[in-house]
Amino acid sequence: MAAQTGKSFIGRFGVHIAVLVFVAIWTIPTLGILVSSLRDKDQIVASGWWNAFASSSQSEAGRLPGASAQTQKDGKYVIEGNIFGDGPKREISAFGVKSSAPTQYKAGSVADLNDGVTLQMNADGSFVLSSPKAFEGDRGQRVYFASSAPPKFTPENYRTVLFSEGIGRSFMNSLTVTIPATVIPILIAAFAAYALAWMRFPGRALLIAVIIGLLVVPLQMSLIPLLRLYNGVGSFFGVPSKTYLGIWLAHTGFGLPFAIYLLRSYIAGLPREIMESARIDGASDFEIFVKIVLPLSFPVLASFAIFQFLWVWNDLLVAMVFLGTAPDQIVLTAKLNALLGSRGGNWEILTTSAFITIIVPLIVFFSLQRYFVRGLLAGSVKGG
Amino acid sequence: MAAQIFSAIFVIIVGVGGCVAYFWGANRLLDLIFPSRGVSGAAAINNLRRQGYVRPWLFVGPALIILAVYLIYPVIATLWLSFFDRGGTNFVGLANYEWAAGDHDLRNSIFNNILWLAVVPAACTFLGLIIAVLTDKIWWGTIAKSLIFLPLAISFVGASVIWKFIYEYRGEGQVQIGLLNAIIQYFGGQPQVWISLPFWNNFFLMVILIWIQTGFAMVILSSALRGIPEETLEAAVIDGANPFQIFWKIMVPQIWGTIAVVWTTITILVLKVFDIVLTMTNGQWNTQVLANLMFDWMFRGGGDFGRGATIAIIIMIAVIPIMIWNIRQANKETGGH
């Protein structure tokens, strides 16, 4: 493969560059929310995340203390202090006293404000306002300044979303939905797959065709009848219609065609000799399945488990239809969607929440990528 | 919350335990009813045969029941409900379909779905193929593929937040915190509100799905490319074919079947696209699609099940050709087995 192209240096160089561009386009968006989620929330809106490691600058306005703060020094009336007060210190690069020229004077220089009044403002925020005449009035001098803050990273956003925005609770809800919905279908599908692969019975070919057909049936076809069914069952037994049990079963149902399809094609490919020699030794189908097929099928079971896990964890539609939106039921994806509505401009909350929702899939994905790819290759007719 | 975790663990134990108990118990019961050991030869053979009739159904039984309740019954019921009114009680004939034919939102959704269908599968397959070919030539190709593959693990909602951040808009002259507008402004252009830009906003939503699905296309196509015999490629090189000729005239025709599989898989996904539109625009600014419109009708003003079901049927009709093709392919492949 590698031999025929890119013989020339430029050709090879071009390939590297092209791939690098693709990788950049595919990773930068995710990097953006990771970096933003760790930034100080005031800095997120003050500069783009790609500037996160540079100092962020902003223009501010403030007012110096009034006449009551003045002291007499060398025959002059002086007001001293720090523009930042007791708050966090930033670095001032320039200042001014007119809104039309907010950065007229460099930090550290002395500005002449008519009638002998001078103002000196230093980079650390300290200022000296002096005048030959006494200051009058409570309203102090208005000042404008450009300041910059060093890059600031903080886990504060994570603390906020996990504990005050309800993401922590939703995380638990997502786990509650996902784990049973991943585990339950496996055994059910494995038995069916074995029967469809190695047992002869009338209607088998039809069943396989039906399952392949069901693979691509849109989820939308199931929603309304199931919602009615759940409401009916709920009111008949006087129980809530939106329950975890309901969504576990729904995800089991929606995952089964793919599970059976994937497992069947793998199990059908196991060597016939093993089955036959076991049968000659007097093993029943049940024993063959439990003792031979199940252990041999571990890779494909893992593939399916990863698929189902990712699918259920990332699902929004099924959760919105079959689960409530109260804090005790809302899953991460639905919570994130709700936050987009209620916290539309609060990027520190959105980026952090988004990163929390994708971190589990990313870990699963990176640690088990081999199985994931295998499943993908084996079952690529899946519609979802 | 502790109760919730406990109940989840309990369900796993009950669920798995129940499955094991069912399969083991049913199998055991069958052996007891039709014993094949400890009875005379003829009876044993007879019983073995009877076991052979019943056992497959014990194995596929639970799966069949769940499939019937969660997929087969709903398909029929949805078709049935599409002929009923909003509550699903009064028969209205073809009224919902007449409504569908004239509804402006629905027409807009179908138009947008067609746009998505025209762009997304093609873009994913094409980009996936290019990346698969390029990464095969370099030593760090595996790492590159992993990174491009990564968005596939991200939920559509998560991806929507990621891209919404990229499309974020601030007034002209302000500091842009959205990457796209920052780049535009850097080069002296005017920042835009991308997701409400008429017509083109659809494409900005499509980018998200392309970003997610290209990795899928890449992995499948990459493995198909590996399957092309080395000799074919070598022969082409000896005959003096240039890289583009090799790509278009040798590689692409050889993996045509795989391209079709990738294309149809993404096509089905596109027909059902919902999360991205809901979270990015909720169908505003003419970005509505069928799946989101259906969700809207399911819950709007207490829900209109008749119209919701009708929209589901429209999606289903679009899927049917692919479904038939899949079944045919599978029959061809499995043949006798």
Give the CA-based shape of chain A: elongated
Helix and strand element order of chain B: HHHHHHHHHHHHHH
Per CATH, the architecture of the largest domain in chain A is Orthogonal Bundle
Portion in helices of chain B = over 70%
Using the CA coordinates, give the radius of gyration of chain A.
33 Å
What average pLDDT do the residues of chain B reach? 87
The CATH architecture designation of the largest domain in chain B is Orthogonal Bundle
Protein model, in words:
The complex is a heterodimer of chains A (384) and B (337). Chain A is of the alpha+beta class. Chain A folds into three domains: 9-52, no CATH class; 56-149, no CATH class; 158-378, MetI-like fold (Orthogonal Bundle), CATH 1.10.3720.10. Chain A has helices spanning 9-37, 41-46, 156-163, 167-198, 204-215, 220-237, 244-268, 272-280, 285-296, 298-314, 317-322, 332-342, 347-367, 369-378, and strands at residues 56-63, 71-73, 76-82, 91-96, 105-106, 110-112, 118-121, 126-131, 142-149. In chain A, the strands form two sheets. In chain A, strands 2-3-8-7-6 form a five-stranded antiparallel beta sheet, with no helix packed on it. In chain A, helix 3 crosses helix 13 (347-367) and helix 5 (204-215) packs across helix 7. The radius of gyration of chain A is 33 Å and the shape is elongated. The model of chain A is unreliable at 1-6 (pLDDT under 50). With 337 residues, chain B is an all-alpha fold. Chain B folds into two domains: 2-81; 103-334, MetI-like fold (Orthogonal Bundle), CATH 1.10.3720.10. Chain B contains 14 helices and no strands. Chain B has helices at residues 2-33, 41-81, 95-102, 104-135, 141-149, 156-167, 179-186, 200-226, 230-238, 243-254, 256-271, 275-280, 290-299, 305-334. In chain B, helix 1 (2-33) crosses helix 2, helix 6 packs across helix 8 and helix 13 crosses helix 14 (305-334). Chains A and B meet through helix 1, helix 2, helix 4, helix 5 and helix 6 of A and helix 1, helix 2, helix 4, helix 5 and helix 6 of B.
